[in-house]
Amino acid sequence: MSSVTRTSISKRRTLGYIGLSALGACIGLLFLLPLWWTFVNSLRAGGDTFRFLDPLQWETFFTLTPSLDNYAALLSSDLGLATWNSIFVSTVTVIIGLAICSMAAFALAAIPFKGSGVVFIVVVVSFLIPFDAIAIPLADLFRDWNLQNTYTGLILPGLGNGMAIFLLRTFFLAIPQDLVEAGRLDGLGWWGIFRRIYLPLSVPSLIGAGLTLFLFQWQSYVWPLLNGTDAQHILGPIALSNLQGQFNVDYGVMFAGSIVLTVIPLAIIIGFQRYFIQSVTTTGLK
Questions:
Q1: With contact defined as beta carbons under 8 Å apart, do 39 and 260 qualify?
Q2: What confidence tens digit (pLDDT) does each residue in 268-281 have?
Q3: Which of 109, 147, 188, 211 could be joined to 192 by an S-S link, Cβ 3.0–4.6 Å?
Q4: What is the 3-state secondary structure (H, E, C) of 153-174?
Q5: Alpha-carbon span 101 to 166, nearest angstrom
Q6: pLDDT averaged over the chain?
Q7: What is the enclosing helix (H) or strand (E) of 225?
């Protein structure tokens, strides 16, 4: 192959790469546009929210007179306490849920026992069934157990997450059995193998499972609506919906609350996205 032909192929590949990158950037901007519009309108008075939509103009997506009045109004609402409640519930769910899900995944992946396949099928089915489908009967049980309007009642349903167990089990299955056998020869029991071999090798997968647990609790609406009805245990999504009045809606305040509840998980996802991608794409040790 001549040098001219190689140069031509290299140029075509470069142009193709630039074209795909530009296309990806445009698609990314299209996804970002609604969030940006929401942010801009959170800096406007509620009466100006839809003022610049028809026709579309540059002021639709920019404002020359930004104001933080909508964010200040949030301080006098229940959203502040609700946001801290959501952070607390989600954080505790991640810590305890990771311990439970990782041990369950380890048992299904490494410890041979009769019925493991049936147990795994039950785990898979558990995250294929929408949680909202069982939320009402589960809320009745929690009410009978005096767990309504308690942090325990808000946290418990998110601890055993089938998707997190599935992700961790898939990763654990890729760990070579040679390491397990070496650990057994060194006198390690199953707990030692789990703690000293599996967990250190599974940090990206654990972070991915932790994000799954966090987002499950953070965006949950039906369960806290059923089980966290008092002012002390209200969570973010419920407090945000309560900002809508019976006869009027201040969209500026609602958009400000939406931005607050979006920025927190968005920052966490961006901070850990490298590990989350590794948890999805990693199929074993290299």
A1: no
A2: 888 887 776 766 66
A3: 188
A4: HHHHHHCCCHHHHHHHHHHHHC
A5: 9
A6: 86
A7: helix 222-227
Q: Which amino acid is at 123?
A: V
Per the CB < 8 A criterion, the answer to whether 198 and 104 are in contact is no
CA 163 to chain centre: 12
Closest CA to 262 of 31, 12, 26: 31
Question: Which CATH homologous superfamily contains domain 70-285?
Answer: MetI-like (1.10.3720.10)
Q: What residue type is assigned to position 273 of the chain?
A: Q
**Alpha carbon distance 282, 279 (integer Å):** 6
- Cβ neighbours around 25 below 10 Å, total: 10
Residue with tokens 């489908």: 133
What's this model's pTM, rounded to 2 decimal places? 0.84
Q: Residue 155: what are its φ and ψ, rounded to 5°? A: -85, -40
Determine the residue type at 65: T
Domain ranges of the chain: 3-67, 70-285
Contact 82, 145 (CB under 8 A): no
